[in-house]
Design goal:
With 618 residues, the chain is of the alpha+beta class. The protein has 15 helices and 22 strands. The chain has 2 domains: 85-336, Beta-galactosidase, Chain A, domain 5, CATH 2.70.98; 348-600, no CATH class. Helix 7 packs parallel to helix 13, helix 8 runs antiparallel to helix 9 (415-429) and helix 9 packs antiparallel against helix 15 (591-611).
């Protein structure tokens, strides 16, 4: 009774404390809100008392302060501060480039051959925060070229069909900078030549510090998936590398180029004479905006110690196309993710087999969904000899089912004894119990290869097929108004077909392979695996789930044909009988089999010792 009263007292005390803190917090919040209301009222009252003349004077003072700060920062280059920003457009067959006199830089690039999700054209570098600038000495201060007004001129067409446009920035002593941009007819590259007169005055210790900022925005259907596919790539010491999950990277070797990479497009800066060092920061967005992330890089370069210097640079605004990037700069083709890190072993498969075969089919088939179907048939044809052996092993397993059932009845709960006799039976009949796993093992590297290939193949972008509007993303046959855990905001029909055909294959294999009745969990595997696949496949590109569906249909057809029309079960049975009657010709045991039998024998002895009755004590 005493304990009961004590517990009731503790509970009541806890309730009282909770009520007290809740009430106190509520009162404090009300008080703070009241105080804020009073302060806001006083502030509004004070603003109401300000006359129009006082407001105009305050605004004029703010403008003057800002102007004085700009004049001070511009220093010797303040003669162009009052010139309004001018824009100049230069076009070739692939893109339209808009230049700005403010900073003498690229303001935006429109890609003519690629549509955005809003039915317009893809624009790169147009977020307002994008740009490439560097600092110079302006007298007693230092300023970024992004803050200075250059004088621009209209583009001039050269004899080779290229167009050149330049922007100049000079002080009274003729020291200054010229930015020359050259755009070739069929290229996504922009040659950028920086010419400096009086470089020793403009730079400190001959160091040129570039600031590269890129804030890529949504271009694809699913911004979450596009964010996962985006990263920062670079060539450091002439070796390709990238950062995805890590936020920062410091360069310890000369840097050839740095690229802000989206799923199918990238913005890159290329230094023909290399950057000496630098750092790059990558922040992937997680909010509800259309911003993919932010790339912020500081790149240092040492220029020759002479009065006049020329720094050759290049800018790339374009698609992640393998051939285009390969021609742009060394190692740049690796921006196209054909296999990286732990999946780098699939890159040769993609580069030398999958990509050439797919490009061959795509060269004469306009509907790329059928090109994927032909690619699937090609892959299955190449792997068919190995698959045939596994199906033959499966047929032998099926023929041994009656004998295995007899062994189970004979040994009952003696699992070690049954395992020993089962291995002996398999060895005598020439059956590999792991042979049926070969098709699944073959699927793993092929699936990873095609996952990388279809995720990065820009040819699939915007290509419709059957009910899918875009093979590079998921096909939403059912769209939800909210996201559901593990599923997302949609249901993909190609994913359902891939899961359904996988379920049929699992059921078929279960019927073909002898099952252990003492392990009922195996009965549910055909149902668990397809559900698990649905969670993974639902957000994958339609191209990949369509491939998997076609591959599964081919698998079902091959299995049915081989089992019913090619394999001679009577012949296989007679071969196994002959092999069992001639034990001398049986192949010697493998090391793995010997170790397995020793382990089974040890477990059997330990079980026998465990089951022996203990001797009574004297």
């Amino acid at each position: 009774m005493k304990d009961k009263n004590t517990i009731i007292g503790i509970v009541l005390l806890a309730v009282l404390f909770f009520t007290f803190f809740w009430y106190t917090n509520k009162q404090q919040s009300t008080y703070l809100g009241y105080q804020k209301h009073i302060q806001d009222s006083l502030h509004l009252d004070s603003l109401a008392k300000i006359t129009p003349e006082q407001k105009a004077a305050a605004k004029l003072d703010s403008v003057r302060t800002d102007s004085l700060q700009k004049i001070s920062t511009a220093g010797n280059f303040n003669n162009g501060l009052n010139i309004p920003e001018q824009t100049f457009s230069v076009e070739n067959n692939l893109m339209k480039v808009v230049f700005s006199s403010k900073g003498g830089r690229v303001k935006s690039v429109t890609l003519k051959k690629y549509k955005a999700q809003d039915s317009g054209l893809v624009m790169l570098g147009a977020s307002g925060n994008d740009g490439l600038s560097y600092n110079i000495n302006t007298g007693n201060h230092s300023a970024s070229t992004a803050e200075l007004n250059f004088t621009g001129s209209e583009a001039v067409r050269n004899a080779d069909g290229s167009q050149a446009i330049q922007f100049t920035l000079q002080d009274s002593s003729q020291a200054g900078i010229t930015h020359q941009y050259i755009i070739k007819p069929d290229s996504y590259l922009i040659d950028w030549n920086i010419r400096m007169n009086g470089a020793s005055q403009l730079l400190t210790n001959n160091a040129l510090n570039f600031h590269f900022v890129s804030q890529p925005v949504k271009q694809e259907r699913s911004i979450d998936y596009e964010r996962r596919m985006s990263d920062v790539c670079f060539s450091e010491g002439n070796d390709f590398d990238y950062i995805s999950s890590h936020n920062d990277h410091s360069f310890g070797k000369p840097v050839q180029w740095v690229s802000a990479v989206q799923q199918f497009f990238n913005t890159s800066v290329i230094a023909k004479n290399n950057f000496n060092s630098g750092t790059v920061h990558w922040l992937r967005s997680t909010d509800s905006s259309n911003i993919i992330g932010l790339v912020d890089a500081s790149l240092q370069m040492t220029v020759p110690s002479s009065a006049s210097v020329n720094i050759p640079m290049q800018l790339f605004y374009g698609p992640n196309d393998f051939k285009t990037l390969k021609a742009a700069a060394p190692e740049m083709d690796k921006i196209v993710n054909l296999g990286r890190d732990m999946y780098s072993f699939v890159r040769p498969i993609n580069k030398f087999i999958v990509m050439p075969v797919f490009n061959f089919f795509a060269s004469f088939i306009s509907i790329l969904g059928w090109a994927i179907a032909l690619l699937t048939m090609f892959i299955r044809l190449v792997t068919s000899p190995l698959v045939y052996k596994s199906y033959k092993s499966g047929a032998r397993m099926k023929l041994l089912r009656p004998e295995l059932d007899g062994l189970r009845k004979k040994f009952g709960t003696d699992q070690q004894g049954f395992a020993m006799e089962q291995m002996k039976l398999f060895r005598e009949a020439g059956v590999n119990p792991l042979g049926g796993c070969l098709p699944l093992l073959l699927q793993i590297p092929i699936f990873f290869a095609l996952y990388s290939f279809f995720n990065s193949n820009i040819l699939l972008r915007g290509q419709p097929f059957l009910w899918s509007h875009d093979l590079s993303t998921y096909d939403a046959v059912i769209q939800f108004h909210t996201k559901i855990w593990l599923i997302g905001d949609h249901i993909s029909l190609f994913s359902l077909l891939a899961v359904g055909t996988s379920f049929l294959i699992s059921v078929y294999n279960m019927n073909m392979t002898p099952q252990d009745p003492n392990n009922p969990a195996l009965k549910y595997m055909p149902y668990i695996y397809p559900v698990f696949m649905l969670f993974i496949f639902n957000s994958l590109p339609s191209a990949l789930t369509w491939y998997y569906t076609v591959s599964n249909l081919i698998t079902l057809g091959i299995q049915f044909t081989i089992q019913n029309y090619i394999l001679d079960h009577e012949k296989i049975m007679s071969q196994m009988d002959e092999r069992r009657k001639a034990p001398k010709k049986v192949k010697a045991k493998g090391k793995w089999q010997e170790q397995y039998e020793k382990m089974m024998e040890t477990q059997k002895k330990m079980q026998q010792l465990k089951n022996q009755p203990s001797k009574p004590k004297k």
